[in-house]
Amino acid sequence: MEPPTSALLTDHYELTMVASALESGVAHRRAVFEVFARRLPAGRAYGVVAGIDRALDAVSRFRFDDTTIEHLVRTGVVVDGEMTDWLRGYRFSGDITGYAEGELFFPYSPVLTVTGSFAECVVLETVMLSVLNHDCAVASAAARMADAAGGRLLIEGGSRRTDPESAVAAARAGFVGGFDTTSNLEAGRRHGIPTGGTTAHAFVLAHADEEEAFEAQRTTLGVGSTYLVDTFDVMEGIRRAVKVVGPDIGAIRIDSGELLRDSVAARELLDSLGATDCRIVVSSDLDEFRVAELEAAGAPIDAYLVGTSLVTGSGHPTASMVYKLVSIADDPHSELRAVGKLSPGKKTLGGRKDVHRVVDADGRFIQEVLSVLPVELEDDTMNPQVPLVRDGEIVADLTNPAEAQARCAERRSRLQDADRTPWPTHSPAIPTVWEGVEEPLSTPVPSGGAQ
Fold first, then answer.
1. Residue 451 confidence (pLDDT) above 50
2. What is the pLDDT of residues 369-383, one digit of tens each?
3. Fewer Cβ atoms within 10 Å of its own Cβ: the N or the C terminal residue of the chain?
4. What is the mean pLDDT of residues 115-140?
5. Rounded Cα distance, 98 and 101, in Å
């Protein structure tokens, strides 16, 4: 069975541009597009790349079958003729280079560089941005939470706060950013991410009392599972859980109240009852700021369960990525020429960008250097760009999110410690240096403006 097409996961104007480009002759000219964010959200030191696997999968499924073309003609989006012939034959045949998943990005980092004909590249704009803006936002929030948690277990539990497919994508992006497990079973099946979960308040309320609920859970899930103790009273819930389960109880979860005060009291009570190895899991509208505050206060918490803030990018649900034409040939025999946008606050610099990062003697990042001309690289540099697609065929293996997670952790270790907090010293953590080209101005974009 053919996989479902992704061709209609796009905007109307992508196809009207192609139709007009076919008319003008621009459609078949060689072109280069770049995906980047002009700026990071205020107060953030870095972004995290995620969703490359989903974006490339969408490119591989970007096909216009007969049913799709009939729909487009019937609804007046395209006119039968040259345009429908082009749609029938569409296959992306170009090259894509980009930052590997888990890599960090900064303002103007060319997260993806897409090369091919103008028409075959421009039509991919919407679906690529749809994927990357979501996944990079979630992964960036996850990494900030991982930095704040200081090695504590992180559990993703935001499926009920977003669209079902977005929930699967968010679970994967959260894992890339540093989360350990997810509650989402489809993410576990599709991506091999560890899953976990025990019971909710409804389970406790469905029984005659807490003791009966805890007894049923112990019989089914075992002594080592996590018991929800805040349905009525946290301290009484702990006493009842230890009484029913025994001092070898695996963990308790607190989902409400004053988490610092309650976790301290819970630790003292658990220890007094002999449950010294029982772990404390907390939830309740957590984000990186609250996690950092709890860690700074020395809260005896072993794991954080985060939902809404993670899957919504912790206040920034988009990574503000844009997809811009940077080079185009005037005819089949001419060299590519740089093109760029001059609009105030939205300036883009023409020309395909080469990238290298300079590191100091300790391996810490000092700066990201962007150039439209080849530069001589020193030994203390690295290039975050890797081949992803060649001649229309995917050449990168992105099936293992654990590799992306490890990369993300390693790259964050190259930042200054002061920039791995919710309140970093520098925003961004390292400067972007331009070689051989004028640095773009970073005038803020008005809220709600087009990108």
1. no
2. 999 877 776 767 889
3. N
4. 98
5. 9
Q: If 0-12 CB within 10 Å is exposed, 13-18 middle and 19+ buried, where does residue 178 land?
A: buried
For residue 17, which of 113, 86, 106, 97 has the smallest C-alpha distance? 86
pTM above 0.90, yes or no: yes
Task: Return the number of other C-beta atoms located less than 10 Å from residue 61's C-beta.
Answer: 15
Least confident of 162-171, 231-240, 326-335: 326-335
From 205, 213, 283, select the one nearest 241 (Cα to Cα): 213
Residue 7 has pLDDT above 60, yes or no: yes
Q: Rounded CA gap, 226 and 198, in Å?
A: 6
User: What value does the mean pLDDT of the chain take?
Assistant: 93
CA atoms of 339 and 350, how far apart (whole Å)? 4
Among the ranges given (112-126, 369-383, 399-413), the one the predictor scored with the smallest mean pLDDT: 369-383
> Smallest Cα–Cα separation from 262: which of 285, 242, 280, 239?
280
Torsion of CA 7, 48, 405, 361, to 10 degrees: 140
On whether the CB atoms of residues 372 and 340 are closer than 8 A, the answer is no
Q: Give the separation between CA 396 and CA 21, rounded to whole angstroms.
A: 31
Answer whether 75's CB lies under 8 Å from 350's CB: no
Locate the domains of the chain by residue range.
Answer: 12-123+320-435, 139-311
Token pair listed for 105: 């990005």
Spell out the long-range contacts of 2-8 with Cβ–Cβ below 8 A and sequence spacing 24 or more.
2/65, 3/61, 4/61, 5/61, 5/62, 5/63, 5/64, 5/65, 5/68, 6/57, 6/58, 6/59, 6/61, 6/62, 6/127, 7/61, 7/62, 7/63, 7/64, 7/68, 7/90, 8/68, 8/71
Question: Element (H or E) spanning 138, and its range?
Answer: helix 125-149
Question: Which residues have a Cβ under 8 Å from the Cβ of 217 and sit 6 or more positions away?
Answer: 198, 199, 203, 225, 227
Cα–Cα distance for residue pair 13/142, rounded to 1 Å = 34
Element (H, E) at 98: strand 95-99
CATH architecture of 139-311: Alpha-Beta Barrel (3.20)
Segments in 5-50 forming alpha helices (H): 12-24
Under 8 Å between Cβ of 125 and 36: no
Distance CA 411, CA 382 (A): 11
